[in-house]
Amino acid sequence: MLQMEDYKQGAIMHIRLTNFVTYDHMEVTPGPNMNMIIGPNGTGKSTIVCAIALGLGEKTSVLGRAKDVSEFVKHGHERANIAITLAGTDGPVRICREIIREGNKSVWQLNGRSATYSEVQKTTRALSIQVGNLCQFLPQDRVVEFSKMSPQELLKETQKAVGRNDLLELQQELAARRQEETRLMGERQRLAQDIDTLRKQNEVLERDVQRWQERQAAESQMRVLTALVP
């Protein structure tokens, strides 16, 4: 039997859905390594993806689908429930979201006690879960959006997905230093050009000074010779 120690921090250990989209009741126990959900079209594979996003506190916009969370309550029912168990630092972390059709509301629980939405977000952030990051969680309805991301955007989101908060700061600092280096190199090149221009001007002035000195010497010699003529 799998133990929590087999899972990395933040990994999903268990999912339970009740009256959610196509499911009356469904439970999934992912393994600690790569997991694949395989089935024909229309069997509810995407429903599990939606449950993961909504159950971990994301807005419906991250799925690119329904606007209201109440639309995920199964037809004919007033409430749906998503329960997700994660591998935490000090033990399993269980997040429950009850979706109420009337009023488009949600009620949260964290490890069996009532919780606020902000508490759930704080918990998932502490486990480096970023459902809104397309490099970590990619719903099929947002694949086109992912394909349009620039290399810079992909790098930024990948750094976030790694879970090292300092990576993005270091990359931004490196980019700033690179810009400063480029600016200084340009300034250096400009100064070198100015020095070369001044050197050439100085050479011209030196030749002018030399010619002036030669003329002065010639004029002085001429005055001496003129004075010697009887």
From TrEMBL:
Coiled-coil ranges per UniProt: 188-215
Transmembrane residue ranges: none
SUPFAM superfamilies: P-loop containing nucleoside triphosphate hydrolases
Key words of the record: Coiled coil
Domain spans labelled Rad50/SbcC-type AAA: 15-201
Gene Ontology terms describing biological process: double-strand break repair via homologous recombination
GO cellular component annotations of the record: nucleus; Smc5-Smc6 complex
Gene3D superfamilies: P-loop containing nucleotide triphosphate hydrolases
Molecular-function annotations in GO: ATP hydrolysis activity; single-stranded DNA binding
Family: Belongs to the SMC family. SMC5 subfamily.
Protein name: Structural maintenance of chromosomes protein 5
Record gene name: SMC5_1
